[in-house]
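Subject line: Sequence and fold of a protein, written as structure tokens
Area: Proteins and the way their chains fold up in space.
Start of record: The labelled sequence and token lines come straight after this line.
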Amino acid sequence: MIPNYLVDIELDKLPVIEKDVIVIGAGIAGLFTAIHASKEHAVLLITKKSLLDSNTRYAQGGIAAVTSTDDSPQFHMQDTLNAGAGLCSTEAVSVLVHEGPAGVERLMELGTKFDEEDGKLALTKEGAHSQRRILHANGDATGYEIVRALSEQASANSNIEIWDNHFVIDLIVERGECYGVLVQLPDGQRLIVRGKATILCTGGAGQLYRYTTNPEVATSDGIAMAYRAGAAIQDAEFIQFHPTALCYPGAPRFLISEAVRGEGAVLRNIRGERFMHKYHELEELAPRDIVARAIVSEIDQTKSTFVYIDITHESPEKIKHRFPTIYEYCLKYGLDLTTDWIPVAPAMHYMMGGVKTDLHGETNINRLFACGEVSSTGVHGANRLASNSLSEAIVFGNRIIAKVAQLEPLPAMPEISTRTDRKQVMIQPVVEKRLKLQKLMLRYVGLVRHEPGLRQARLELERQLPTFDMCLEDYEQFEFANLLTCALIITEAALWRQESRGAHYREDYPQLNDEKWKKHSLQQREYGMIKERQEYV
């Protein structure tokens, strides 16, 4: 069984630091929430790398919010519900679409500069959106611009203390109450940080898969530590694979934004034939899961390893202006977006499920909150609508701090000792174990799944359980333990859901089955897969 702590600790022998609010992670969720909390609280922002290392930085397409008179919250809500394949919380989606525009205004107040045309915000359209409502910055560098602005604000804020290169190993939880976190410093020392509220903003689990658009830091740390602490993990089986990641020898799986298709790009197989009309009436702008599986189908039929994305019919000036980051990146590998068809294939992109929260970001553990990709608010359902993730982070970050303001002072911390005298050390290099795990997840728990493969994945993952009996000492070992934890959670949920819905596709159960499966998976460490749930539907 996965233990509740990764390392042996005796709280009375560790230094203790007091803070009002502890924020773990430095993407849009962490930065925005920390800045908002700093108005009334002393905030500690902890990141295992630096302020510029997060998934947000790599977000190209933009942020979805209703800012045009041609659009409405009702349109945005319906698009989100349609993409979510029956598992969205209508209440959570309503919160998102109605409070998102104010969140965008707040981002601009904090220094984010979105692109404009003729004095108005420039808007684009992405897959499964019925209206042009995607705000973007510097063409296709929206995430970087948001992180730039928020990082500058956080760094200059005297109420925010920032710890770079610090690793949060575990949450300190006793009897359903979170008292703070166990942190390892860059020099290997450990200490306890106590806080009235602890907010997980740690991002997703992209590094679970061999091919991903996520950075190296996306190792499911928040989901894993929350699970160990007793938090409920919801809908972990829904893993979104972005349809169009660069697939070229020697190049990382760099994201080719959905906005490229939103601006008119088409998909072609290696024979040069367009094919999306065979799979969905919206063709290239169909929901991501449909486009990704269509690409895999064409790859299989043509015995290739990629398809092409083609926007060469647009003017070079427009392409360079609208997609400068993608254009420059492709040029590094001898590919010209203005004249060449760009080879692409699906890659792991986003985890819809995560730590289950209410509409104020609070988990089933008192004083523990989750925001951003690490959370499962009910907004995304079985398949996230493009560009809703950045909106979700600011809307629910705002709501979390409203709830934190109502919390009573933190009581005295109980005596906690987790000594198990772990002595065995990890012998096999972590890089080898991590690569093996990534290949396993890609093969058996990827875009297309079936029971024999999922059972094989679970068997091989369980062979790694002795990892938790070892004496783990450095960041890479902690990350592997977190990846293993999350891999087991995802695999168990994928085995449990015997249907195909949204981003979860089972070859052996290819149909959607509302009568039996219009419900959520829910897992807790002590109980495994919890009773069937019908909330949100």
User: Anything to note?
Assistant: The chain has a mean pLDDT of 93.
